[in-house]
Amino acid sequence: MKVRIEEIPGEGLRLDLVEEGRALEALAGDIDFSIASPVEAHLEISRSGSVIDISGDVTAAVSMGCSRCLKEFGFRVSSSFRNRLVIGRVEEREKEKELTREDMDEVVFEGEVLDTREVILEQVVLEIPQKPLCRPDCKGLCPVCGTDLNEARCSCARVERVDPRFAGLRSFKVK
Ligand SMILES: [Zn+2]
Ligand SMILES: [Zn+2]
What we know:
Blueprint: E1 2-4, E2 13-19, H1 21-28, E3 33-35, E4 39-48, E5 51-65, E6 72-87, H2 90-100, E7 107-109, E8 113-115, H3 116-126
The structure holds zinc ion (2 copies).
C-alpha cells in the first residue's frame, strides 16, 4: 500500500495489511530466501512536522537453505519494531548533523510516498540470520564426500569441527 506523506491524518494511520510473499520477493530483488504468503503486518504511522513515526509488527514464514547442510528449512519471522523517519534531503541532514554535532539516529526519508511493502520487507530482511541453521546442532555435510552427516555417517577421515557454543549438545542424541 502506498501512503502519501501529506495525507497522513493528525490522528495517524492504523493499518492491518496482508501482503503476498511473492510480491515482497520481487521487490527485494536478489535474495537467498523465499517468503511464503501471507505476510501479515500491523502498522501504525503518524507524522508530526517532518518526523514520521512507524511502529508495528510483522509476521512471515520464510524458508532458506541451511548454511551447513544446504537443506531447505522454514522458520517464522516475527518482528516488532519502531522506526523514525525524518523527511528531508539526505545531504541537508548530513550538513545539519555536522553543524550541531548531534549524533542523530535517524533515517532520512526523501520523497512523498511511503510504500508499506518496503517497510514490511525491511523487517523481514532484518530477521534473516547471517548463517542460517536448520537446527542449532546441524552436523552439515562431509567436506570430503558430501554425505549429509545428520542422516548418515561416512568413513572419510576428517577433523571434526564443533561450534563451542553447542559442544554441550553433543551428548544429546538427535534421532
Ligand atoms: Zn542443516
Ligand atoms: Zn565423507
